Amino acid sequence: MVEMITFNPNPHTLRVTPSAKEPGRFEWSITRDGVVVRQFVRSFGPEDESDATGDVAYGAVTIRWQNAR
């Protein structure tokens, strides 16, 4: 008997965008179905820094989502 493997893609999306309030800085948010589920209230100077901290939060949201299933 062959078992089927079901892959459920993560429904969350990490978005790093230029700050609307502070030119030259970046912000991140995590969305699900177009709705913001988490975002950081501070902006970051380099885009890489914003992406790195957003990625950590994305991992935490993903773990909570996987554990809730």
Structural class: alpha+beta
| Quantity of strands, as a count | 3
What fraction of residues sit in β-strands? 25-35%
Count of separate structural domains: 1
Rg from C-alpha positions? 15 Å
Helix tally?
A: 1
Which sheet architecture does the biggest sheet show? 3 strands, antiparallel
Q: Catalogue the unreliable spans.
A: none
First-to-last CA distance:
26 Å
Give the % helix: 25-40%
**How do the strands of the widest beta sheet line up side by side?**
1-2-3
Summarize the model shown.
The protein has 69 residues and is of the alpha+beta class. The chain has one helix and three strands, in the order E-E-E-H.
Description:
This protein has a three-stranded antiparallel β-sheet, with helices on one face. The chain is elongated and about 55 Å long. The model has no long low-confidence stretch (mean pLDDT 86). The chain has one helix at 47-68, and strands at residues 12-18, 26-32, 35-39. The protein has one domain (12-68). Helices cover 32% and strands 28% of the residues. It has one helix and three strands; from the N terminus they run E-E-E-H.
